[in-house]
Amino acid sequence: MTPLGIARTATVIVAVVLMTSTRAPASAVIDDSLLVRIYDNAGVLASELAAALRTTHDILRRADLSVDWVRCGARRDGPGPAVCDQPLSSGDVVVRLTEGSDQENGERRALGYSLFDGKGVSGFATVYVDRVDWLARRAQYPRAPLLGRAIAHEIGHLLLRSNAHTQTGLMREVWTAEQVVRNRREDWTFSPDQNGDLRNARYAAMSNAKKGRRPPT
Ligand SMILES: [Zn+2]
To answer: Quick one: DSSP state of residue 15?
Structure first.
């Protein structure tokens, strides 16, 4: 924890030498769903982002979490949704897609990080799209599902208000190209215990949320 009380956690990936080788942004918001504001500063194609978010949605759906996405920021198409200009409600999160610095040129690069306070109010996650691409290239694997998994990992940190990692599953710290190629379902999902924790955390956030309708998106 920093003096500001902000927790920061990073997901790191390790490249290995390989011998071989969306739910779309919603137009309306369900009141009990998790609202995720997407700020895409990396210029991800809309179709790829939609595919990535479908992966994220499917992962969170297994924890019985409903998610709505709204694209905010300069690169969005057309006028901005009104909700982008509203203060975050309790439990709402922001995901920023951007490119990482060139300072991490080794075989261990952070895919993203999450910032949250200790009060369960809201959280901010950053995912480095170029590093997702880097891992995807090494694994010769499509970018969109990897991006969706990285987003789900960071949302997991935000919902659980924890920077902890596990040895296995989606919340492990190190993702290797070998694991990407292997593509085992259990490597890319929350554990049953984590699914329960996610649900409990979401219900707690909802109970703390102020009453009233969200503005239309
Ligand atoms: Zn992490």
So the answer is: -
